[in-house]
Specification:
Shape: rod-shaped
Structural class: alpha+beta
Radius of gyration: 40 Å
Number of helices: 13
Order of helices and strands: HHHHHHHHHHEHEEHEEEH
């Protein structure tokens, strides 16, 4: 059998009727694409349609199959056989179609129940968004398949106005169903943009010392606007000012604000014998707070801890000494139980309190996020 030849014959018959592919498709309730495939020989009509097409064009079924006209018309016996074959094919197709329709409806119901169970009485954090997204896509595919096997899809696609309304309702439905996810995605996008645009500011000019300290830069005075408020933490462990008796050998202040301000600073000072004794006395008189356990910090052994102001949420301000005239002042001030700032790039590890870990991988962070204070 030459399908190309049969296709050309069907095209010739249509031209004789002076019809378009779209018009012929409406006659036999098929798509214009199906008609195009018949005429190119890609596919041939179902056997159930052959008799109808032959009657419509007033030709013999054999002429369609062979792709050319015959002088004699189909006799009654051949026509009866073709009709019975077409009826049999329709019965088989109808039985298969009914099974597919039932399976499709069941599939849609199962997916709706699955999505309901994934979201029922659950907060946004408890929902597995990956599984929910896959379930939703599967629901859409199954719904389209159901519309197809029931014949509704073809009717819908012919009504352009109805298609537009379905698109609109679908978009509104998706937004309504996933509004929290959409809002959170938008917020996360903004935060990521803020993080990518935020720059780490590093200052090492000790002559501007007073500008960086929240007890001396006027941060709490009316009308004063400064970024160095440092979440209100008490920095008076650090010297009130840089005096002539102080030999500052190392100094750094770091500011980073992706969405919450974070501060890191240290200053290493070598004192004369008398000045060192006086400063040690001042620091030991400071009312230090508890600090062990906060952000995984252990008892300080690298240096002698002279004074510390620790907060389980905001971080640390402290002073360390080697006992030989050198005092190290340090601070790490932040919030949300971790630092976005890669602090180990800006401060020597020995200047941090022993065990300090303010990363999201720390045990302290995991515990606090599971059971936040308050």
């Amino acid at each position: 059998m030459d399908q190309k030849k049969a296709g050309r014959f069907l095209k010739e018959l249509r031209h004789e009727k002076q019809m378009t592919q779209e018009q012929l498709a409406q006659v036999f309730n098929v798509s214009s694409r199906s008609v195009s495939r018949w005429e190119t020989g890609t596919n041939l009509p179902d056997i159930s349609l052959l008799v109808e097409i032959a009657d419509f064009y007033d030709v013999d079924v054999r002429e369609i199959i062979e792709g050319e006209r015959k002088s004699e018309m189909m006799d009654k016996e051949v026509r009866d056989v073709a009709t019975k074959m077409a009826d049999y094919a329709n019965e088989e197709k109808g039985s298969l179609l009914r099974k597919m329709q039932i399976i499709s409806f069941v599939g849609v119901l199962v997916l709706l129940v699955a999505i309901f169970l994934q979201t029922f009485h659950k907060s946004l954090d408890e929902i597995n968004k990956g599984i929910l997204f896959v379930s939703f896509i599967a629901l859409v595919i199954m719904a389209v398949l159901t519309l197809y096997v029931t014949g509704l899809l073809e009717k819908i696609t012919k009504n352009k106005r109805l298609v537009k309304w379905i698109k609109f309702v679908t978009i509104v439905g998706v937004i309504a169903a996933f509004w929290r996810t959409i809002v959170m995605t938008f917020i996360v996008g903004i935060l990521l943009l803020m993080v990518s645009s935020a720059k780490v500011e590093v200052y090492d000019d000790v002559s501007a010392y007073n500008d960086y300290m929240n007890f001396s830069n006027g941060a709490y005075e009316k009308g004063v606007d400064t970024q160095w408020t440092k979440w209100g933490m008490d920095e008076t462990i650090w010297p009130k000012e840089i005096s002539k008796e102080m030999n500052v050998t190392d100094f750094k202040m770091v500011y980073y604000n992706p969405w919450d301000a974070q501060y890191l600073g240290y200053m290493v000072v070598e004192y004369s014998e008398d000045a060192y004794a006086e400063e040690v006395k001042r620091l030991k008189e400071y009312e230090s707070t508890e600090y062990i356990g906060y952000y995984c910090v252990e008892e300080e052994k690298t240096y002698e801890l002279l004074a510390v102001n620790a907060d389980p949420y905001q971080g640390f301000i402290y002073a360390l000494t080697d006992g030989k005239g050198k005092i190290i002042y340090g601070e790490q001030i932040f919030c949300n139980y971790f630092m976005d700032l890669e602090y180990d790039k800006y401060i020597p590890k020995e200047y941090l309190l022993d065990g300090f870990n303010a990363t999201q991988e720390s045990e302290y962070y995991r515990e606090k996020r599971k059971a936040p204070e308050g």
